[in-house]
Amino acid sequence: MNLFFQDSSAVAGAAAADTTATSGSPSAQTDTTAASDAPVWFEGLPDDLTATDLAWMGARVVVLLVATLILIRIIDRVARASMRQFEDLPHGNPRKQRATTLAALFSSTARYLLWPAAVVLILTEFGFNLNALLATAGIAGIALGFGAQTLVRDVIAGFFLLFDDTVHVGDVITVNGQEGIIEDIGLRLIKMRRFNGELVMIPAGELRIFGNRSIDFARVVCEVDTAYEADINQVTDALGEIAAEWSETNRSIMLDEEPEVHSVLRLTDSSVRLRVVVRVLPGEQWIAERSMLKLIKQRFDERGIEIPFPRRTVYMRPESAGESSPES
Q1: Which of 168, 50, 192 is nearest to 105 (CA)?
Q2: Contact at 8 Å (CB) between 276 and 261?
Q3: What is the domain partition of the chain in residue ranges?
Q4: What crossing angle do the helices spanning 26-37 and 2-24 adopt, rounded to 10°?
């Protein structure tokens, strides 16, 4: 009996010693620490990956990228095809401008949605643990959120700008003293082409106060000066006849029955100023103004009506007898 208890005690002591030695060994502690510190982003990857498996994964990633590109191309073609029914409409037509704007927005939104979705699918294909990745991204997002406030503001402003129907592709707008034509409207960025050819990028959040010269109508304003010596009634009648003549060839762009002639608009230092005003279709005001001014100049010349311009009279002082001319 004593021998039995002694042997049992020896076995128990040996087991305890072995357990202590195992738990205290550096290699065991390293293995445990390594297991606990292993990244959890790749938990979805199998442990027995082969070269064939990696090749199939790469092929599926390529298919995803190609499918995303093809889908974006299809959406762009659909957007362009939807614009063909509006090609025959005149420039500045509200339906044409709105369709162009919505087509550009549709293509832009598709890119914002499809590419992030493709990235998520590719990460899933490589076995990323999206829950752990999203948790890490959430922590980083809090730190980056302050820096992304401008981006979020621009996107939200872009949505409201489009749904408020205040600006379209093809509109002529004035922003911060710069004037140009809208070429593209995206969720975040608006592209404006200035008349000198410069392309200006405007974040949607910066487009808070702007002027739009393409809504409802535009106004042609031609100011003409005449001499104080001229008969003002005769000049006013002549200007009315010239405006009526101009109207006969520009009825298609006019929104008023006849142009208005404002007699004696202002008395300047050297002339009497008159004005002709008429409403036209948006976008036609510049050509209309140039053609009217040209016609006014031609008819005034034919009728002998003078348009004052700055003159300078030079008086030559005769040389006195006592003054000698400089030697050459």
Answers
A1: 168
A2: yes
A3: 218-303
A4: 50
Q: What is the DSSP string of 19-44?
A: HHHHHH-HHHHHHHHHHHHS-STTTT
User: E strands along 152-259, which residues?
Assistant: 172-175, 178-185, 189-194, 199-203, 211-212, 218-226
> In whole angstroms, what is the distance from residue 164 CA to residue 114 CA?
26
CA 159 to centroid of chain Cα atoms: 12
CATH tag for 218-303 (out of 3.30.70.260, 3.30.930.10, 3.40.640.10, 3.30.70.100): 3.30.70.100
Instruction: Name the token pair of 227.
Output: 């001499």
Angle between helices 94-125 and 149-163 (to 10 degrees): 140
* pLDDT of the residue at 243: 94
SS3 260: strand
What one-character-per-residue DSSP string does 68-91 give? HHHHHHHHHHHHHHHHGGGTTSPT
The SS3 assignment for 174 reads strand
What's phi and psi for 176, nearest 5 deg? 50, 40
272-289: pLDDT as tens digits: 999 999 999 888 899 999
Residue with tokens 């809090």: 142
pLDDT in tens, 305-328: 988 887 777 778 776 655 555 554
The strand pairing partners of 254, in sequence order, are: 280
Instruction: Name the residue with tokens 């050509």.
Output: 287
Q: How far apart (Å, rounded) are the C-alpha atoms in residues 6 and 300?
A: 135
Rounded CA-CA distance 168/162 in Å is 8
For the segment 86-112, what is each residue's pLDDT rounded down to a tens digit?
777 766 566 676 777 777 777 877 887
Distance CA 126, CA 54 (A): 9
Contacts of 288 (CB under 8 A, 6+ apart): 220, 250, 253, 278, 280
Contact indicator for 288, 217 with CB cutoff of 8 Å: no
Task: Name the phi and psi angles at 255, rounded to 5.
Answer: -110, -5
